[in-house]
Amino acid sequence: MELEQEGSLRKLEGKIRAEPRHLFAMPVVFSLGSGGGRILAGVDVSRVGAIKVAVNSSLRDLKQIEDHVDVIIKCGDGGGSGMKPEKGREDYLGIADDIPGIVEKACEIYGCEEPDVIVTIASLGHGFGSGSLPEHARLIKERFPNAVHLIFGITPFYFEGDSAIIRAYNSLKETVKHNTVFLLSNQIASVKARTDPMKLKLSEVYNNINERISHMLTNFFEALTTTEGVMMGLDRADLKNVIQGEIGGMGMVKYPSLEGLSAEKLLNDVMATIYMKPIVEGPGIRGTYILDSKDSVPISLLNSLNTILITKWLFKTDSFKPLVIERRKEFTSFILLMAGMSLKKQIEKGLDILVFGLETGEYWSKAIAKGIKKLFKRKEGSA
Q1: Averaged over 325-354, what is the pLDDT?
Q2: 303 vs 232, 234, 309, CA distance in Å?
């Protein structure tokens, strides 16, 4: 690690050590790729205590966010990976040996012996993010087997082209061998946010969606690392029990208070912020929720939420354990996690509702669909 990076980490040590104990120790949040870096730059970790580490092969894009992250790590020659995931992989492997040391240094600053949670935000579809994520997921799993690795994969808009979507799919297919990936589709986000990339400036579209995702992640991280008010808690084993399988989704809504809110209202609203299309098959899915409230939480509301999620949404009872927090804050947030979904089953179910959320006729031509199905079958046969 360079001296400049060491100095950046040391500046945070005194402040973080002085903070109360967090529910989960989350000492570091990584980003991979340019899009992931822009989202990381917008995440507020001031109450979380984590350091923000942006990893990329584009020095230009790192420089654009360096004032909003704690550490930047240049991979390769800094000129980018040229839309080539294999080069992105090679660029990442050139610095991979530094990653465990960064996590360990972050733990030292944070004041924990080992991390409960490590976060990675990766943009998929281009060179570095797509190529680096499978290797990064493997490395974290091998070196920190006790940690929950929360991976958020940002998938492309339909206008980014056939090659981008195939690169994203390839990266996901390799990554889910090591860890669950929570999908955040730019395409679905633009539709749900009524942000039409064909009518607005591209910079406006990206900024709007990046802000939404950063805000969602900030609230999620703050809830997981709360220092007060835990009325119904989770431990690391509980969180691991939820976050299994290949892919997952997450949504978050905020309210001034809980007054007048029903379980149906909470769930309907949060579905509008889940930027993927979940497919539930078989006996159900893994999932839970976090209710981070400024008010006292009525038992009747919890009972209704639990009943609906188990009986109608098919949440498995063996992994269903909510996190309920009552503390001093300006608003109430409701966060829903869904996991345990299979990438393979999503493909077999039909590419019209693939994990990227792209509808047939809107983007998926028959030729593209056929090509990806062949790619899937070929890789399955060679495994």
Answers
A1: 78
A2: 13, 18, 10
Tens digit of each residue's pLDDT (9 = 90 or more) over 165-204: 889 989 999 999 999 999 998 888 887 877 665 666 777 8
The domains found in the chain, sorted by start residue, are 21-242 (3.40.50.1440), 248-343 (3.30.1330.20)
* Euclidean distance between CA atoms 166 and 297, whole angstroms: 45
In this structure, are residues 175 and 134 in contact, taking their beta carbons and an 8 Å threshold?
yes
Q: Which residue has the tokens 């579905």?
A: 271
pLDDT, mean of residues 125-150: 97
Tell me the pLDDT tens digit for each residue of 55-67. Answer: 999 999 999 999 9
Cβ atoms of 53 and 30 within 8 Å: the answer is yes
- Rounded CA-CA distance 255/270 in Å is 11
Reported as type and span, the H/E element at residue 144 is none
DSSP H or E run through 203: helix 202-224
User: Read out DSSP for 232-291?
Assistant: E---HHHHHHHS-SSEEEEEEEEES-STT--HHHHHHHHHTT--S-----TT-BEEEEEE
Query: Would you tell me how many other CB atoms lie within 10 Å of the CB of residue 101?
Result: 11
The predicted model scores a pTM of 0.87
- Which tokens in the block code for residue 127? 């060179």
d(Cα 257, Cα 293) in Å, to the nearest integer?
Answer: 8
Residue whose tokens read 């209202």: 265
Q: Which two tokens stand for residue 53?
A: 């580490």
**Under 8 Å CB-to-CB from 107, ≥6 apart: which residues?**
25, 27, 113, 114, 115
User: CA-CA distance, 25 to 10, in Å (whole number)?
Assistant: 18
- Expressed in angstroms, the distance from the first to the final Cα of the chain is 36
Helix (H) or strand (E) holding 28: strand 28-32
Question: Does the pLDDT at position 15 exceed 80?
Answer: no
- pLDDT at position 360, please? 38
Tokens 């006996």 map to which residue?
283
Beta bridge pairs of residue 332:
255
- The CA-based angle 110-116-117, given to 5 degrees, is 90
The H-or-E segment that residue 330 falls in is none
Q: How far is CA 76 from CA 102, 288, 343, in A?
A: 18, 40, 31
pLDDT tens-digit readout, 265-296: 999 999 999 988 777 777 789 999 999 999 99
Q: What whole-number distance in Å separates Cα of residue 7 and Cα of residue 341?
A: 42
